[in-house]
Amino acid sequence: MAQVNALPRQHRPDPLRALGVVALNGMFDEMDALGVLRHAVEEILPGDVAIVSSFGADSAVLLHMVSKVKKDLPVYFLETGKHFPETLDYVETLKTRLGLTNVIAIQPDPADLKRFDPNGDLWETDPDSCCHIRKTEPLEPITEEYGGWVTGRKRYQTVERGVLPHFELTSDDRIKVNPLAHFSDADVVAYRQEHNLPEHPLYQSGYKSIGCAPCTSVVAEGEDPRAGRWRGLNKKECGIHFDFNGAIAKPMVAVEKHRLFKDGAFIADPFHDWGEGDDAATAHYTHVPLPVFLEHRETFLANPHPLGLLVSPGERIEDVKDDLQRFASVAIKFPAFTDGRGYSTARLLSERYRFAGEIRAVGDVLADQIPLMRRCGVTALVVTHEPTRQALAEGKLAEVAIFYQPVGLTEVPVGTRPYLRRAG
């Protein structure tokens, strides 16, 4: 019998682990969903596995199996604040009916909602960021507590899921378990009827895959069951899942770590880089290169969505001084440790133009530079250098306590009389 040891909290990728997962997939019949779940919970990851459930159209089937294997298995429900009322009622119905004793609601961080989605309408303009804030971000720290996760995904739901196995190994050596991978829609219905399971109240109304209310619509006869999710958009997944073929999304922990450091912590970054083909009229949460903004200035000014500005060395912030209030964030590029022109741009923004929005440093941001960047007005940092990330996270940056060349309106050089210094 194939055996895959529970994931240690600190680990190195183990090539034999991948072979173990391959062996696991060969152990079970296509329809042996209960056997897959039982083996995962009792043999592969005892005490180190949990389930994420949407409590959607098909959730009763897998949750019924959970009740047969381990009624107190942790079941995490992402309470995004955007669910149908019927879904919230369904959570209570299944908990009672199946005797589940460990259903845990996870909610988005109120601070993230206040900052990134204060009006609750981010889903209209940027559903990926909405999903990130309301689903991926709250779930990520929970996933780090477990060596594996059980999902309700099935091959038939989308083309992308058509090669889904029972067991997956993510790039960080965690195990995804998909007991229903080989179930068809007919299998789901038959199982539900055989065990007299309550169906989601919206199922008979044509909702075949049910997520957040604003992004879920009725599915027509013959359509992909998930066609009603994010209809009309090039989006099939919320970002919390990963299939071994890499076609759906990156693994949660393998997604690039939060790079934005602000207000003392690494946080989710709602902004994206400007990409080829982006439209000035519809861009949102994008740092627009300064030359691009100048070229399409009137269109950007008419654009109602939040925007940022990207300033590279040699570009003049003075050229957009009258439009700075249009931007929620200004990103200043520091392409190399030896290129200090970004400091001047930061000082112009903070001192001359009194820019009240976020001033962020991007590019080659290293620990030795950060105290200087902060003195020049930088309030946020995009950091990829791991030692610098560690120093920031632990509050161990070297600070500049004595300086001879003051910046701003408050610093005074050592050995001088403050009243003799001129501010401007």
Quickly give the CATH architecture of the largest domain: 3-Layer(aba) Sandwich
Unreliable stretches (pLDDT < 50, length at least 5) are 1-13, 158-162, 241-257, 419-424
- Pattern of helices and strands: HHEHEHEHHHEEEHEEEEHHEEHEHEH
Largest sheet properties = 8 strands, mixed
Radius of gyration: 26 Å
Total E-strand runs: 14
Could you report the average pLDDT, rounded to the nearest whole number? 81
Overview of this protein structure:
The chain has 2 domains: 15-215, HUPs (Rossmann fold, 3-Layer(aba) Sandwich); 260-420, TIM Barrel, CATH 3.20.20. The protein is 30% helix and 12% strand. The protein has 13 helices and 14 strands. It has helices at residues 15-27, 33-44, 59-69, 85-98, 110-116, 122-125, 127-143, 185-194, 290-295, 297-302, 341-352, 370-375, 386-394; strands at residues 49-52, 75-78, 103-106, 148-150, 167-169, 175-177, 260-262, 265-267, 272-273, 286-289, 307-311, 329-334, 358-363, 380-382. Strands 8-7-14-13-12-11-10-9 form an 8-stranded mixed sheet. Helix 4 (85-98) links the parallel strand 2 (75-78) and strand 3 (103-106). The chain is elongated. The N and C termini lie far apart (77 Å). This is Adenosine 5'-phosphosulfate reductase. Its cofactor is [4Fe-4S] cluster. Residues 49-217 form the Phosphoadenosine phosphosulphate reductase domain. Pathway: Sulfur metabolism; hydrogen sulfide biosynthesis; sulfite from sulfate.
